[in-house]
Design brief:
The protein has about 350 residues and is an all-alpha fold. The chain has 2 domains: about 1-90 and about 195-260, no CATH class; about 95-190. It is about 60% helix and about 0% strand. The chain has helices spanning about 1-15, 30-45, 65-90, 90-115, 120-135, 140-155, 160-165, 170-190, 195-225, 230-235, 240-260, 300-305, 320-325. It starts with a helix and ends in a 24-residue tail after the last helix.
Amino acid sequence: MAKQGKDYERWVKAAAETGRTDNPLKVPYDVAVREAVAAAAFVENYWEPDGDRPGLKRVKSRLPASTSEDLLSIVHAVQEAQTRLLLIVDPAVTDVGERARFVVDELESALEFLLDDDVDEPADAQLARIKEFHAQDGQRSSALSQALRDYAGLAEALKDRLVEADEEFDVRLIAEARKLAEDLQRRAMETVPEGVASAAAATIRNQMLHLMVDRVAAIRKTAAHVFRRHSEIVREVTSAYERRRRVAARREKARKAAEAGPVDGKPAPAPAPATPAPAPAAPRPRPPRHRPALGPRNPGRLAARAAPHRIPGRTSGGGTSSRASGRPAPAGRRETVRRTACPPKSGTW
């Protein structure tokens, strides 16, 4: 307690300088504290390189060597601030809260082990709802009292199976959970906290939590960079609680989807297949273009080839040409020239 008091005095001023008074936790308080302690141990274990594995020492300009020691000191300061707050607003928790949390953890662990058998039954959904409801519980006596009742009720219904699955399971925890729940509720009703004092204590506690959360986030970010090729090492410093919660959320989503599938005893209609895109229209046939008949490309050449084979004095009608006989052609009569075919290249007709 004296050590925590010194750590509290060491960090209270630095925490106030942040100016943030909201509660930064996204996980239960106990989980956040355990993960902070684990992060401090992670820095100490992986500070020096080992063979092919790098070490956090390489980024000491961003993550000082004192990070592990400082984080543990901040954790002690957070615990002291939490105790001072609970002594004002909920003194019952300071007396029996530790035992109550132990009983809740024992019952939750036993139920998870029993129902993690790949068999879907109503108890699975009931446990999932209890865990989801109490996922953000703090250390207040009202939350602990309700959690004790919920877990004790489910454990009572599965008591025989719990003993069968684990012979060392202590069935007396069920009765103790109910007794602790009643004690916490009774003492909470007798406590009337002072508003101003409780608000001031809550502000200091939240400021301390910001220091702790920021240090843990810096360690995780640095580890993701340094050990980017060693995913199994990075996994050691990430939140196991968050991983379990994501898995539980996916299972619950799948369960709800399966339950919402059938409607009135009929399976949900399959989605309509996508309409295929229309095929492109075939191009219309184009009418053939009319090309006028063309004569010989070089008529003069053909005439020159046929000229040596004219028969002198002959006309197309078998008569004698007027040009060959020297007589003028009769009026109105056109002289014609008989053209013969060109001889073949072989020289034969």
